[in-house]
Amino acid sequence: MIEGAPYILVVDDEANMLIAYKTFLKPDYNPILCSNGTEALQKLTEYSFSAAILDLKMPDMDGLELLEKIKEHDSDLGVIMSTATNDVKYAVQAIKKGAFEYVTKPFQYEEILGLVAKIVERRELRKENFYLKSALKEQQSFSDLIGQTSVMRNVFMIIENMNSVGSTVLITGESGTGKELVAHAIHQRSDRKNKPFVVVNCAAIPENLFESELFGHERGSFTGAFERKIGKFELADTGTIFLDEIGCLPQSMQAKLLRILQDNHIERVGGKGPIKISVRIVAATNTDLEQALKNKSFREDLFYRLNVIPIKLPPLRERRADLPLLIEYFLKKFNEELKKQIAGIDRQVMNELLEYDWPGNIRELKNVIERAVVLTKNGMITDISLRGKAVNGMPETLTSLKEASAEFEKEYIKKALAKTGGNQSETSRLLGIHRTTLISKMNLLGLK
C-alpha cells in the first residue's frame, strides 16, 4: 500500500481485468480489488474509498444493484461503471442511479485515470468545504477569532481557562493580528461579560489629556473643563478595560496605572478623594516591551503587573494554514453585509493570496476581501489588489493575446512540473494531456 494515497474500489469478475486495473492505478492510488459485489460491500466497511470502478455484468450481483447499495452506504462516492455492452439504456440507468460516468470496454487507461482523478479531486474539495463550515461554526463563540493552527488553538485554550479569573492580561503581536478581538473574547468568556467593555487607544491620546481621558475630571479643574467628565476607568467599572498600544503610555501615566493595579482606586483630575473601582485590565502592544524595559522607557514593575497572563499572537505569515478559513469567513461575512452572492475565488488568485506575506495581517486580509466583494458584480472573484499590485488582472503593458496565452501556459506547466517533482508522466496526467503533447509544449515554450 502507498501511504497517504487514495483508496479505489475496483470490482470485476474477470481476473485479467483486475490485474490490468491494479497495474495502471498502482503508481498513484491504492486499488482494492474485488471479484464480486458481496466482497465489495464487505470492503466498504473496512476502507474509506475515494472512488469506485464497477463492472456491469457480474454473476451474483450485477453492477447496477451494487451501485445502489454503494450509494446507500456512501451517497457522495463517485462511481465509474464499465462494461463490454455498448447499450445506451444501461448507460442511462447507471447515470440515473448516481454513477459519475459510464465507459465501454475496451477503453484507454488514460480515460479511466482522468475520471478517477476528477472524482478524487471533487471528493477532496467537498471534504475541505465541510471542514471549513465546521470550523467556522466552532469558532463563532470567539466572535471574529478564526483559526485552526496549534498556536491559535492555544490562544483559545487560554481564553477558555480564564473565564472565572480576573487576572491582568498582556497581549502582544504585530499590528492587525487581532489583539482587540482577543481582548473582547476574554471579556465575553468572563464573569464580567454583561458589564462594560471599554476600549482605550493609548497611541491616539495627546499626552496632556491622558489623565483626564482615563480618570475623568471635575468641573473647573483646568481651563476648558466646563463640566464634570467621567473617565474611561470609571466607565469600565465592574467590567473590562482594554488598553491598546500600552507601550505609548507616558511615564507619568505608567506610575498612576501601577497604583490602580495595586489599590483598585482612581482619582479624577481636580477630585477630592479616591474612587474605588473593580476593573479587569487587558493591555496590548505591537512594540517590544522587553526592549523598552532595557532603555527605561517602560516601567519594569508595571510590566510584571500587566504580564500576569501573556498571550502572543503570531503574524498571519506564520499561520498560513488558517488563510483558507479566514478567507472563507470574510467572503461569507461581506456577502451577507453587502447582499452579494460571490461564489468563490479564482484558483490562481487564491494561490496568490496564500503565498502573499500579509504585512498588515488579518486587518489587511479583511480589507482586501471586502474590496474584492464590493468590486465584483457576481460569480467568482478573479481580480484582487495587494498593496497596489493587481493579481490575475490585466498587466500594465498589454501584449498580444497569443503571447499572453503562451506565458500563462508556460507558468502553469512550470507549476505542475514543480508539484510532481519534474515527473513528466504524472504532470501530463495532472494536466489532462498526453505525455508526448506535454513534451512538445515544453520544447516549444523553452521548458527543460
Automatic annotation (TrEMBL):
GO biological process: phosphorelay signal transduction system; regulation of DNA-templated transcription
Classification via InterPro entries: AAA+_ATPase (IPR003593), AAA_lid_NorR (IPR058031), CheY-like_superfamily (IPR011006), Homeodomain-like_sf (IPR009057), HTH_Fis (IPR002197), P-loop_NTPase (IPR027417), Sig_transdc_resp-reg_receiver (IPR001789), Sigma_54_int (IPR002078)
Protein name, per record: Fis family transcriptional regulator
Domain of life: Bacteria
GO molecular function: ATP binding; sequence-specific DNA binding
4-aspartylphosphate: residues bearing it: 55
Domain Sigma-54 factor interaction: 145-374
Keywords: ATP-binding, DNA-binding, Nucleotide-binding, Phosphoprotein, Transcription, Transcription regulation
Source lineage: Bacteria, Bacillati, Saganbacteria
Residues in Response regulatory domain copies: 7-120
Organism for this UniProt entry: candidate division WOR-1 bacterium RIFOXYC2_FULL_46_14
